[in-house]
Each structure stands twice: as structure tokens, then as C-alpha cells.
Amino acid sequence: MSSHATPDAGATGRKPVTLHRLREMHAAGEKIAMLTCYDASFARLLDDCGVDCLLVGDSLGMVLQGQPSTLPVSLEDALYHTRAVARGNRSAWLVADLPFGSYEASPEQALRSSVALMQAGAQMVKLEGGGWTAETVRFLVERGIPVCAHLGLTPQSVHALGGYRVQGRDEAAAATLKRHAAELADAGAAMLVLELVPSALAAEIGTARPDLITIGIGAGPRCGGQVLVLHDMLGVTRGRLPRFVRNFMAGAASIEDAVRLYVQDVKAGRFPDPELHGY
Ligand code: KIV
After folding, report:
1. Helices 171-187 and 133-142 meet at what angle, rounded to 10?
2. Distance between CA atoms of 201 and 219, rounded to whole angstroms?
3. Rounded to the nearest 5 degrees, what angle is found at the Cα of 231, between the Cα atoms of 17 and 126?
4. pLDDT for position 3
5. Residue 2 scores a pLDDT above 60
6. 97 is in an annotated binding site
7. pLDDT, tens digit, for every residue of 10-52?
8. Run of H or E residues at 14
9. pLDDT tens digits for range 133-168
10. Which residues form the active site (predicted)?
């Protein structure tokens, strides 16, 4: 988006992606392609390339701000980036993260923070954790706010979890994850990000609750959709990346080609590859 570009209707010409549409896609077995997004220019590009859902993730703390974790991200930060993404987006479904400290105190605090994110342009809010979060999810959903839950490796709890490691490996941990997923679905969560969990466990969760759209990141191919951090899949992130990341810029002629390839490979079930990217 050059500063002098003339706004137009958007390249895909697709109808806005709604929650109803996402549920239809999921019921029909069409995989949902999600990417993180933090600014207007990328929102426009990702939307034009057919990305179904944009996530204003609190990964913005690490990716944009150079923080060591997502913990320092404030609600103000999330609002700033949600407004920017909403301005650039035309038709993708827009999910915004509730940052650490903006929803844990009470359902009322979560409602206040969610209202601010929705007024900034989000169409769904995402919060991390299971158990205690079910009450908050129900409180938000009853008040008209679509909710995406997030289980497995929940980065806001990185210190409690002892690092960025695969979750739900043993029987007890897997049983807890399955119980939390069922409770969140019962509370009305429409979507569930599963991060760094064994592929078989993620598949089991999705099969048990077809009403819940599971979105995997390091959770194998048998989720309802996939998400990656934009800078990881574009090969911008330095250092050693987790095995679930694929650099879609490798061999691509442009960022647009890389994003289109991501959408195609998610939809065709070619990404993630269980051998290369799974646990
Ligand atoms: O903040 C984020 O980018 C996320 C994704 C990794 C799912 O929560």
C-alpha cells in the first residue's frame, strides 16, 4: 500500500468471511487458512491472497517489539495493531488476542477488554488456557462476542510451563487437554487454537467436538485449519525455528506467491507434513 495508492474493492472479490461461513467450511471439510497479521499493508495483501482468518496475535511482542516473550504486550498495543489490520482488511475474519493481564482477573475484566478489541475492529477474541477460562468464555459468548480458545503450549504461561515445549504428551496431560477442550466447546467457544500438541491428540480433540473449529500450530494436519506466525513463514524470523514452521518464501518469487502457496497447501492438506512438522 503506497501512501498514494487508490483504495479499491480488493482482489479476491470474495464475500466477507463470517463465523457462519467458517462453520460451513469446517462442516464441509474445507481447511481454514489463518496467519498472524499486525498492520494494514499485510492485512490487505493476506486478504487478497485468500487467507481466511487474520490473527492479531500477541506474538507482536516478539515479532514487532523484540520482546523476549508475549508477556509485556499491553491491551493498548493489541488495540493499536487491531485498528491497523482492520483498516487494511476487506473480507478476512479478524481475530485479536487478549493480552496477558487483560482478562484473567474476572469475566467482567475480560468483557471490558474484549469490547475494546471489538470496537477496534476485531470480530472474535482469543484467550489462552483451560479450566477457569470456561466461565469467562461463556460470559463473553452470551454477550455476543465470538471466542477462540487456545490450549496446549500457551505462550502467556511460558514460565509456568518451563519453556516452549510440546504439551499433552503423557496420558494424564492428554486427558486434561481433552477435558478442557470439551469444557470450552460447551461454554460456546467457536474456535480452538491447539499449539504444540501431538498430532494424534489434536485429531482426537477435533473428532470428539466437530462443533469446535480446531486450528493447529505444531498440532499436525488433522485440525480444521492451520495458523503460522507471518514472519516465520516468510523467512524473516532469525535463529532456530520450531520444527512446525515452514518457510514458504523458499522458492517463491514474491511474498504474494508465498502466501498463496500457504493457502493452497493448507487447503490441500499438504501443510503441515506429519513427518516434517508434526510431533
Ligand atoms: O500470538 C500469536 O501469534 C498466536 C499464534 C501463535 C497462534 O497466538
Report:
1. 20
2. 8
3. 45
4. 65
5. no
6. yes
7. 667 889 999 999 999 999 999 999 999 999 999 999 999 999 9
8. none
9. 999 999 999 999 999 999 999 999 999 999 999 999
10. 195
Contact predicate 30/68, CB 8 Å: no
User: What is the DSSP track for 99-120?
Assistant: -TTSSSS-HHHHHHHHHHHHHT
Q: What is the pLDDT of residue 65?
A: 98
Opening angle at CA 51, ends 26 and 154, nearest 5? 75
For every residue of 117-157, DSSP letters joined together read HHHTT-SEEEEE-SSTHHHHHHHHHHTT--EEEEEES-GGG
* Ligand 1: residue whose CA is nearest its atom 6: 229
Instruction: Quote the Cα angle for 124-128-133, to 5°.
Output: 90
Nine-digit cell string for 138: 461463556
Determine the pLDDT at residue 42.
98
DSSP states of 158-220? HHHHTSS-----SHHHHHHHHHHHHHHHHHT--EEEEES--HHHHHHHHHH-TTSEEEEESS-
Output the CA–CA distances (angstroms, integers) from residue 54 to 17, 91, 141, in the order listed.
11, 10, 20
Distance 62 CA to ligand 1 centre (A): 11
> How far, in Å, from the CA of 20 to the mean position of ligand 1?
23
Q: Which of 32, 54, 55, 234 to mutate to test the pocket of ligand 1 (most atoms within 8 A of CB)?
A: 55
Q: How far is the CA of 171 from the centre of ligand 1 (A)?
A: 26
Q: Pick the atom of ligand 1 nearest to 195's CA.
A: 7
| Nearest alpha carbon to residue 202 among 217, 222, 186 | 222
CB of 245 shorter than 6 A to ligand 1: no
Q: Can you tell me the distance from the alpha carbon of 228 to that of 234, in angstroms, rounded to the nearest whole number?
A: 10
Residue 217 Cβ < 6 Å to ligand 1: yes
| pLDDT above 90: residue 275 | no
In this prediction the pTM is 0.96
